[in-house]
Amino acid sequence: MTKNSSRTLWRLLAVALLLVLVGGLLAWYTQTAGGTIAIRDVRFVGTNGKMMSGLLYVPPGVTNKNKAPGILAIHGYINSRETQSGYAIEFARRGYVVLALDQTGHGYSDPPALANGFGGPDGLRYLRSLDIVDPANIGLEGHSMGGWASLIAAGAFPNDYKAVMLQGSSTGTYGAPEGTAQFPRNLGLVFSQWDEFSQLMWTAAVPKDIVSTDKLKKAFNTTETIQPGKLYGSVQDGTARKLYMPVMTHPWDHESTEAIGYAVEWMQTTLQGGTPLPPSNQVWYWKELGTLLGLVGFVMFLIALGGLLLRLPVFQAVTQPVPAAHGVTGAAWWVGAVLTAGIPALSYFQFQKWGNQWFPANAIWPQNITTGIMTWAVLNALITLALYLVWRVQTGRVTRPQLAHRVGIVAPGMALDWGLIGKSALLAITVASAGYLLLTLSYTLFLADFRWWIVALKPMSPLQFRIFLGYLLPFVFYFLVLGLGLHIQMRRQAANGQPMSQRREMLTNVLLMVTGLVVLLLVQYIPLMMGGTLANAAESLLTIVAIQFVPLLAIVALISTYFYRKTGNIWTGAFLNALFVTWYIVAGQATHFGF
Question: What does CATH list as the number for 34-191+253-282?
Fold first, then answer.
C-alpha cells in the first residue's frame, strides 16, 4: 500500500467518524428538542411474564403534579420502536408523553411475535400506570399491525383511552375488533392512495376504493361513500371519525410530513392539554438525516478500517496479487449480467415461500422473514455455483491448481491456505466488531442507530446475537459463491484491454446486484401508482421488504469489490458481508419462536 493510499484511507476514516458524530448529535438534538425532552429506554413486564421494551418521551415540565396527555405509538410488522420516531418526536414537542413500543417479538421485546395482542394492551397498561400521565387523556396511534395492536388495547381497556389514530391499518383484521358506531372512540384513519394492503385492510383491491366498502362505512356509521377530510360524528360523544388519504405508499407513512401532520391534528382535536403547535411545524426529518449520515459513515468506516488493517503485519498475508480478469466476454457477458440480475428477482417471492414451508420457526432459525431471505440467498447461491461450474467445464478451466487461483482463493501455484482463510475471517470479525462498537457508542451517547426509513441497523439483544449465530453460516456460503460470480466469472477488463478501475468495477457490480430488484419493484409499483394494484398483489409484504435490499445489496457490492481488489481473493469481503448482512437482518426482524 502506497503512502498516498494510506493517507486517503485515514482521511476516509476521519470523514466516516465525523459523519457518525455529526449525525448522532443532529439526531439527539432533534429528538430531544435541544435536550429539553427526556427520552428513556424502558423495560416492563407484560402478559405471561414477557419483558416489553419501549422508548418513553417526556416533555419538559411534566411531573406527577403536572401531568400531561399520553400517547401510545406502535410500529408495524417487522419494524421497531424507532420506526415511530417521527410521530413520537412531534407528539412530544406538543407536550404529550409518548411511549413508542416494541411489539412482542420485535426490537427488544420478548418473543414470540404476534402474541398478547401484539403487546398493545401491555403498552396501554404501562402508559396509564405512569404518574406523569393524565389517565383521562390518552391516545393510541399505530401503523399497520401497530394499528391492530392499538385497537386490541382499546378493546381490552374500553374506558382507558380517548382517541385512536390508525396509519395504514384497519378495524376487524387479524384479531382487531370490528369498527362500529361506538368503537373505537374517536377514530382517525390515514390510508394512502397507494397503500399496498388495501385488500387486506378494507377489502378493496384498489386503495382509493376503500371509501365505498361496507367495512369502512360500518366503522364510520354511515351508508354513504366516505368523504376524505370530512368529520363524522362527535368528538365529545367519542364517535368522531375522519379519513385522510395522502398520495403515498404504506411504508412511506413513516417519512411523510403529511401523514405525521394528520396524526398530530387528530390528537390535538381529540385530546385535551398539550401545546398548540401547528401540525405543519415539524422537525423530525432532521433526526432522519442524522441517522442517515450515521449509516453512510458506518459503511465508509468498514471500508477505511479494513484497508488500514491490511497494513498490519498480522493481516499482510491476506493480501495476494489480484488475478487478471478471465471472465466471460462479449455477448456472453451480457447474458451473464441478465442472469446475475434476473434470477434473484424472478425467484424472490417463490424461494422465500419455500423457506417458510420447509423451515417453520424453530430454536435455530426462529425468524420467519429471515428464514425466507436465507433460503432465497442459499438457493440463488446454488444456482450461481451450478452456472459457474458449467462455465468452467466449457472453458476447460477445471483443474485444481487453476481453479484454486483463478477463483481468487489462493495465489497461482499455491495450495489451499487455511491460514489465509483464518486471517481473512479474523480481519472481517475485527472490522465488523469495530463497526458494532461504533454503533453501540452512537446509540449510548445519542440514542441514535444507523438508519433511513426502513433501512435500519440496530444493536442486537443477547437473544438476537444467539439467533445471528444460527443464520450466519448459510449467509457465509451465499457470499462466498457471490464472490465467485462477481469477481471471477463476471469480472472483465476495460475496453482498452487494461484492468478496469476500482471505481468502475464497483459501479458495475452495484448494477449487477440491484438492477433485478429495481426492475421487480418497478413492475410491482407502476400499476399501483397508475390507479390499480400491485402487479402481484398477493405479495405486498415481500415487495416492501425488497425495497431495503436495493441499498443493502449496493453496500454488499461495494464491500465485496473493495476487498477483492485489495486482497486478490474473495474471503475477506465474503466474511465481512455475511457478518454485516446477518446482523442487519436479524436485529430488524420479528422473532416468531417463543424461547
Answer: 3.40.50.1820
